[in-house]
UniProtKB/TrEMBL annotation:
Pathway assignment: Cofactor biosynthesis; thiamine diphosphate biosynthesis
Organism: Evansella cellulosilytica (strain ATCC 21833 / DSM 2522 / FERM P-1141 / JCM 9156 / N-4)
Protein name: Thiamine monophosphate synthase
Coiled-coil ranges per UniProt: none
Keyword vocabulary terms for this entry: Thiamine biosynthesis
Domain Thiamine phosphate synthase/TenI positions: 17-182
InterPro entries in alphabetical order: Aldolase_TIM, ThiamineP_synth_sf, ThiamineP_synth_TenI
A GO-annotated cellular component: cytoplasm
Length: 199
């Protein structure tokens, strides 16, 4: 089985200083840290990247949600595009150095993202999630179906725990994206080890 890729995403609720402190603890076990702070201005996001860098998080592990301008100017690893973001192919053409992820919610969207040049897709939510309690989860079968339709990596998100992470990987996902499972854990380091080793 391919090594499990782990993405940890900021939740927009805790100060980025706290996120950076947590990131420093789990740095060696995480592939990418996503700065997902919709409420922040470009300058505030840039300042947040400085905080991560000051805590020893390398730029090549930082992904900025939506804001292509900030990701490009700060020379971080990449950008995570949403449905309301710029088009994948436009970003890819202008900023070929950025790793581009696209958040998708269907097989059709995933196929389209790959066609336009996305490096990977973020798909979910897979299981019942705190952030979307009233939305029916897509489940393992739909994840497996989507994985079989694209050749780029699929990162699963939504309700992922150390105890269901292996079912996600068995469905063909390249890795998982985690928010509350790590950020709200009493011991983030022990928790990330559980995720990495499958519970």
């Amino acid at each position: 089985m391919t090594r499990k890729e782990i993405h940890v995403i900021s939740n927009g609720k805790q100060p980025l200083e706290e996120f950076a402190q947590c990131a420093r603890l789990i740095l060696s076990d995480v592939d990418y840290f996503h700065v997902r702070e919709k409420q922040l201005s470009a300058k505030q996001l840039s300042d947040g990247i400085d905080i991560l860098l000051q805590h020893g998080i390398p730029a090549e592990k930082i992904v900025v949600n939506d804001r292509v301008d900030v990701a490009a100017v700060r020379n971080v690893a990449g950008v995570q595009l949403a449905y309301h973001s710029l088009k994948v192919n436009e970003v890819k053409q202008r900023f070929p150095e950025l790793k581009i992820g696209k958040s998708v919610h269907s097989i059709e969207e995933a196929i389209d993202a790959e066609r336009l040049g996305a490096d990977y897709v973020l798909y979910g939510h897979i299981f019942t999630s705190k952030s979307k309690p009233d939305v029916t989860p897509r489940g393992i079968r739909q994840l497996e179906a989507l994985v079989n339709e694209v050749s780029i990596p699929v990162i699963a998100i939504g309700g992922i725990t150390p105890f269901n992470v292996e079912s996600v990987m068995s469905a063909g996902a390249r890795g998982v994206a985690i928010m509350s499972g790590i950020l709200e854990a009493e011991d983030p380091l022990s928790m990330i080890k559980l995720y990495k080793n499958g519970g």
